[in-house]
Amino acid sequence: MTHSPSSLSPMQPTAPRPHRVCAIRGGTVRFAERVVLAGIDLVVGPAERIAVIGDNGAGKSTLLRVLAGTVELTAGERAVELPGGVAFAEQQPRIRPDATVTDALDDLLGDIRALEAETQRAAERLAAAGPDERGGLLAQLSAAVDRFEARDGYRLDQRVDAGLDRLGLGGLDRSRPVHTLSGGERARLALAAALASEAELLLLDEPTNDLDDAGIAWLEDRLDAHRGALVVVTHDRALLDRLATDIVHVEDGTLRRYGDGYTGYLTARASERRRLLDEYEAWRQDLARQQAIVAANAFRLDAIPRKAERAVFGHGAFRARGRDHGAMGRIRMAKERLARLRGDPAPRPADPLRFTPAFTSIPTSTLTSTAAFNGPAAASAGAAEEKAVLIRADGVRLDDGGPRLRLDALEVAPGDRLLISGPNGAGKTTLLNVLAGELTPRLGTVWRRTGIRVAWLRQDVTTGTPATLLDAFADATAAYRDDAAGALLRLGLFHPDDLHRQVAQLSVGQRRRLEVALAVTRPSDVLLLDEPTNHLAPELLEQLEDALRDYPGAVLTVTHDRRWRSRAGASAATRQVHVAPGGLVRMSGSALA
To answer: What are 122-163's pLDDT values in tens digits?
Structure first.
């Protein structure tokens, strides 16, 4: 959505300013009793490209709304010096419910439409004016035209049409009510308007969501060509790596800014973790050293008699004073140091994600099946056992009025890496469900080795249960509550205050992190990842990818994440699986028939 800064008059001169910025100083945003952002400072320069990252619910979208001026600061100051305007494309754009597509575009481009109307009015006043008025009205018309041309207003509709076409909305009926569009279509409508606006500052909230590869490529080229400033909230690591010059990390209501793009951000975060680990180790060693001093001097103190039998010439009194003066003084100093260390402990950095349980090879045994088999199928089952195959599918057909799938032959063994691609709705998730045994095919057979353990990261995050986070994790991992709390906190995915919140009350991102915690903690032989990058911060995704390199089981991944696909595709161990429309499964570009 586009917004014209309220502090600027339409007739203000358009001469360039040397330090045009949008800035927040000491900003706090509070919704009811919840503080979303606290004491934040952010300055956006005239050509800076800033990416905002952080967990879901951290306040990233709120930060964009503050920059756009649609959310007021509870405290602090917002300063805007952007004569070229601000364009804001939200994930859930606020559009009048009775608006048509044309109405919505006009509203989203309101500041340019206002400049257009102002230019028209100025021209009409000049045409009707007498000779004495024409000088002043001509100057007003010239200023209005300059502002309109600065936004390339005469080609606005052409850019809107091109943007809608590139974002998959080229055939959209402009008279159609906006409320009949899907959420993704409304978001793309707002994105097309923002990119067409030629605003000096672009604010984009997850712009790559719901875009295909062609749409993303066009978006990146369009942003490359943008001459003004850009602030984008995104989990798209390829977009971060290509466009961002600075990264702003939102956490616990505060902002931290990193330079040198996404690579610089990852390097700085790794350096921070090493520093925290060094500080924690120094604190732990100092604590152990002081405890040892207390123990050693207490032992020495106990070895000194408390009272001499004879105090000849004051000898017993001298020994008592020596005992108190040496060991007791060292004990007192060590205890004081211990109290300070325990009162101000160094934070323990989170452990990197690792699939900690050892992979347990499953002994050769009878395979389970989702369909009865005999004859050649039984022979195939025996062959699969000899090869230690975990899952084997033969002649699978699923087309009984629901999801469709045609899979002729597929084997999954320990250590396999399968990267599954295909258009939306083709049947990628259906393939995972069939292999996991959650869907039974109409024809064909799916065998799974008895006792194999399957872990899921599903595309749709569950709504959660009334159980607390700690109870849910303890039950799922069969651990005592104290042990479960320690294991969960060591992963660094949650704050201690979160442990006693109900899972149903957690944000979508937090529930996703619970799934990650379970996946890396519980033993598994097959890991099914269905859009694993959804709702996870980029830094956590990097850790998850690193952890998967050492995972000895089989990993089947469905993802649109370009960085994930690029890295996986570069590995010789990865097998490519494509699901075409209609559910036809092909391996490495050739049919499995």
So the answer is: 777 777 777 777 777 788 777 778 777 777 778 888 888 999
Q: Cα 92 to chain center, whole Å?
A: 17
Q: Residue 112 CB: number of other CB atoms within 10 A?
A: 25
> At residue 472, what are phi and psi to the nearest 5 degrees?
-65, -45
What secondary structure letter does DSSP report for 579? E
CA gap 204, 223 in Å, rounded: 11
Q: Distance (Å, rounded) from C-alpha 141 to C-alpha 498?
A: 60
- Give first-to-last CA distance, the chain, whole Å: 50
pLDDT at residue number 248: 96
CA atoms within 13 A of residue 574's CA, in its CB half-sphere: 19
Strands 201-205 and 86-89: parallel
Alpha-carbon torsion, ordered 390, 393, 399, 401, to 10 deg: -20
- Collapse the DSSP code of 588 into the 3-class scheme (helix H, G, I; strand E, B; otherwise coil) and give the result: coil
Print burial letters for 82-92: b (CB count within 10 Å at least 16), e (below 16).
bbbbbbbbbbe
Q: Judge residue 563's burial from the number of C-beta atoms within 10 Å of its C-beta, 0-12 exposed, 13-18 middle, 19 or more buried.
A: buried
Confirm if 427 and 469 have CB atoms less than 8 A apart: no
Are 2 and 193 in contact by the 8 Å Cβ rule? The answer is yes
Q: Give Cα separations from 267 to 50, 263, 264, 564, 573 (angstroms).
A: 17, 6, 5, 19, 27
115-153 per-residue burial string, b: 16 or more CB within 10 A, e: under 16: bbebbeebeeebeeeeeeeeeebeebbebbbebbebbeb
Q: What is the pLDDT of residue 373?
A: 40
The full DSSP string for 348-380 is PPPPPP---SPP-PPPS-PEEESS---THHHHH
pLDDT band with cut points at 50, 70 and 90 for residue 12:
very low
Sign for the CA dihedral angle at 295, 296, 299, 301 comes to negative
Spatial contact of 345 and 283, defined as CB atoms under 8 Å apart: yes
Range from 292-306, 361-375, 422-436, 450-464 carrying the lowest mean pLDDT: 361-375
- The rounded distance, in Å, linking the Cα atoms of 272 and 269 is 5
For the chain, percent of residues with pLDDT exceeding 70: 86
Q: Quote the tokens at residue 331.
A: 């004990």
* Interval 522-549: pLDDT, tens: 889 999 999 888 888 898 899 899 889 8
Residue 112 contacts residue 2 (beta carbons within 8 Å): yes
DSSP string, 72-83: --SEEEEEE--T
Residue 65 has pLDDT above 90, yes or no: yes
Say if strands 229-233 and 34-44 run parallel, antiparallel, or are unpaired: unpaired
Q: In degrees rounded to 5, what are phi and psi of residue 374?
A: -160, 180
What pLDDT sits at residue 304? 60
Non-local CB neighbours of 258 within 8 Å, separated by 6+ positions = 246, 247, 248, 249, 264, 265, 268, 269
Q: What is the pLDDT of residues 71-121, one digit of tens each?
A: 999 999 999 888 888 999 998 888 888 899 999 898 898 888 888 787 888
Listed in sequence order, the residues at least 6 apart from 509 whose beta carbon sits closer than 8 Å to its beta carbon are 55, 56, 57, 535, 536, 537
